[in-house]
Amino acid sequence: TGSDVKAFCAAPVYALVHAGCLVKAGVSERVIVFGGGCQCKLGMKFAGHLKNGMPILEDVLGSMAFLVTRDDGVSPVIRLDSVGKHRIGDGSSQQDIYTSLVVRPLEKMGLKMTEVDKIATELHNPEVTVPQGSGNVPLNNYKLIAALGVMRKEIERSDMEGFIEEHGMPGFSPTQGHIPAAVPYLGHASEAMAAGQIENALFVAKGSLFLGRMSRLSDGLSFFLQKNDGANKSNENKK
């Protein structure tokens, strides 16, 4: 069977958490999470490209698929005990959002922000978004996360750039609606864990700005992916 997950820009993260919960609860043994862009979004930012004498870069449809099953003792696992939720009463400022999606779930595991090897946020390709006027979305998000680390005295202000370099990444995803929402890095994270390059990664997605402008409400979800230590832990699911 199957169903749609409509959570706008945070949809991929919601879908993966839902899949993990279905498997953990025993409702399903294997769940495929898949999604893609749509033709009506092709070239949405063309005006900015033409204005700057550039070709229309947003000329591809993004798509992705992931398989979620029970822990096999080898594959990376989703920590369902530390899913970050932007609750209705948490407030809608950027500080409130990242406290909900980054700080709170890490605190549940006894981790600091500096103990997360990689943090994936909205991974829009800045080559597409900057000429159009939307800015470098991933870099702006990492600056906010780093600033929160300074406020919490986990890093020094002078270390912000180094924190971003070490724990962040450049945007590389097509800007097809929900596609960039953190999970384009998931395959790379799995390979890096298998190669022993990283131990964990945090995937963070915020709700649609368009939706927020209509409702004055914000939304977001995050999950923590970690290298499998070979133990069949009750709070984890294979990714």
Quick tags:
239 residues
Question: Overview of this structure, please?
Answer:
The structure is a single chain. It is built from eight helices and eight strands; from the N terminus they run αβαβββαβααααβαββ. The chain is of the alpha+beta class and 239 residues long. The strands form two sheets. Strands 3, 4, 5, 6, 7 and 8 form a six-stranded mixed sheet that branches. Strands 1-2 form a two-stranded antiparallel ribbon. The longest helix has 15 residues, at 94-108. It starts with 10 loop residues before the first helix and ends with a strand.
Secondary structure elements and pairings:
Elements: H1 11-24, E1 30-36, H2 46-51, E2 63-69, E3 77-79, E4 84-85, H3 94-108, E5 118-120, H4 126-132, H5 137-151, H6 160-167, H7 186-194, E6 200-206, H8 209-215, E7 220-226, E8 236-238
Parallel strand pairs: 5-6
Antiparallel strand pairs: 1-2, 3-7, 3-8, 4-7, 6-7
Q: First CA to last CA: what distance?
A: 20 Å
Radius of gyration: 18 Å
Oligomer: single chain
> Mind summarizing the main beta sheet?
6 strands, mixed
Secondary-structure element pattern, one letter each: HEHEEEHEHHHHEHEE
Low-confidence runs:
231-235
Number of helices: 8
Structural class: alpha+beta
Q: Helix fraction?
A: 25-40%
Beta-strand proportion: 15-25%
Number of strands: 8
**Overall average pLDDT:** 89
* Principal-axis shape: globular
